[in-house]
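Section 3.1: Structural characterization of target chains.
Under the original work plan, the team committed to producing a structural model for every single-chain target entering the pipeline before any wet-lab resources were allocated. The record below documents one such target. The sequence was received from the expression subgroup and is listed exactly as submitted; it comprises 481 residues.
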Amino acid sequence: MDSGDPKTGVVHDDAEKHLDFTPGEVPEFDTGTEKRLMRRIDWRLLPILGALYSISLIDRTNISNARVAGMAKDLGLTVGDRYAIALTMFFIPYFFFELPSNIVLRKVGSANWLSFIAFAWGTVMLGQGFVNSWQALTACRTLLGFFEAGFFPGCVYLATCWYIRFEVQKRLAAFYLLSVFVGGLASILAFGLMQMEGLSGIRGWRWIFIIEGLLTQVVAILAWFLIIDFPDKAERKGFLSPAEATFIANRIESDRGDSVPDELTWGRFFHHLGDWKLWTFSLMFASVTMPAYAFAYFSPVIIAGMGYSGGEANALAAPPACAAVFTAFGFAWLGDKYRVRAPVIAAQAIITIIGLMIVAYHTNHGVRYFGIFLGVMGCQGNIPAILAYQSNNIRLQSKRSVGSALQIGFGAIGGILASTTFMEKEAPYYRTGLWITAGLQFFILGALVACSAYFHLKNKQLDLGTLAKPIEGQVGFKYTL
């Protein structure tokens, strides 16, 4: 079977032999039927992914809530760089195991794999409630990173295979921002769990890990029954009728020509890694995840430095995340409606920079708290925006698998930077960390200028008929600016 040219990554006749249509044709589905079908897919796919990723974010960031609830004193985390080490060790396995996880995901099925790794990290989270040393906490964080590594890239890979290019940012924003909203409320949940202090002789910070670990296990079990597979498998699983499955394949084929999965071989793997765009998108993602993790890990500490108690600081860390849901989805809607990506990303990067500088330098605590709002709104909105930027400008499912794993793997680098540059000795202002974070937002702006210039040039060459070879190996494919 001719599975494609490993040098170009273009899929040849073997893909078309599996299709029940001619690429480019769209079957006779009226607009109302199409909308109802896509709405059914939305409601089946996005809420459960959002729920699980909500728990994922809670489980990786609730260490900041536990810290101000007494864990720092009990485990001696204020000594040297112990807290930074515990944070950093999460991201090392998180970086290395994302691509292998995406490969396993394709082979064993979405429901089987995503629910399994969610149950596994829930078990680790529960066990974290019983650690008695900072070393044991660090070991648990390492295991947590190992099991969580595959979840977010798997979700992005799965979701982008269901939708055409100018539907995808709203969908990514919907499932991601649901997790941001729930993750924001997690600070309030942590405040409530802290009130269990002493129940059954267990400290309040331990109850945060125990209860949230149990919650993860329950949702992971439910997820096995709810998560749908990739479009090419959905008919066999009974979710789509044959006509619906053909329609979904048709619209994806007409949009970008990669409805049929192409096998990820070592040749294709290294070929895809040779595309500079994947590395640029990945560096941009690392640059935006740094402020996202920084605010998640250090907002309670910054707020506590304004004179609030640990419980109050946890509660006050929630509103900025909740506000980010509305602004980020608004930007996502604009991006899909006007079919642009770079202007949306640039606007939110500028908002992030303004917020960071206010937090770093303003002397009024109320204004600094407002700066946290701006910073969180800008960076959280840019996470789905940058994911969509990559998704819109690459083709082939093998490349999506590699690209999503590489991009989100670089998100771990953002987490490491956030964990190590916000130094304990600089609390609660963290000016070094805030400046490095702002510098990365300037990098995003520069990368957008470079990519936009290149994309515009290639699109113009396509329009003039002077392009040497098709963009991304697909005749008529254009880059999204």
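Residues 1-26 have pLDDT under 50 and may be disordered.
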